[in-house]
């Protein structure tokens, strides 16, 4: 049997794994266990992010050589990465801009 953590919301001990997400059967809370580096990705509101989530940009972002990405832009199917530059930890495709790297601190989970 795996040694899974208790639910951080209701402290239930019957948490089960569904791929990369852990789910609490009592309160329905979904969360991600810390990986080997102890890294959990959280958005600007503190919600845990997982690969494939849809997020919204929370502030206008300047882009070199293009117009800025406006606050409220929806970004689908994000991919969480270990940042090479130490800052940008989301890889995504933004309509009209192409592949971009974002910080988790400038997005919120839908």
From TrEMBL:
Domain Protein YjdM N-terminal: 4-32
Domain Protein YjdM C-terminal intervals: 42-109
One Pfam family from the record: Zn_Ribbon_YjdM
Signal peptide: none
InterPro entries, sorted: YjdM (IPR004624), YjdM_C (IPR013988), YjdM_N (IPR013987)
Superkingdom assignment: Bacteria
Family, similarity comment: Belongs to the YjdM family.
Name assigned to this protein: Zinc ribbon domain-containing protein YjdM
Organism: Pseudodesulfovibrio karagichevae
């Amino acid at each position: 049997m795996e040694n899974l953590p208790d639910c951080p919301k209701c402290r239930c001990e019957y948490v089960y794994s569904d791929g990369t997400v852990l789910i609490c059967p009592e309160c329905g809370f979904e969360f991600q266990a810390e990986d080997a580096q102890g890294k959990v990705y959280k958005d600007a509101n503190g919600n845990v992010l997982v690969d494939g989530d849809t997020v919204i940009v929370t502030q206008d972002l300047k882009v070199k050589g293009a117009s800025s990405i406006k606050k409220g832009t929806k970004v689908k199917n994000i991919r969480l990465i270990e940042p090479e530059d130490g800052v940008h930890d989301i890889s995504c495709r933004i309509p009209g801009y192409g592949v971009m790297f974002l910080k988790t601190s400038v997005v919120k989970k839908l």
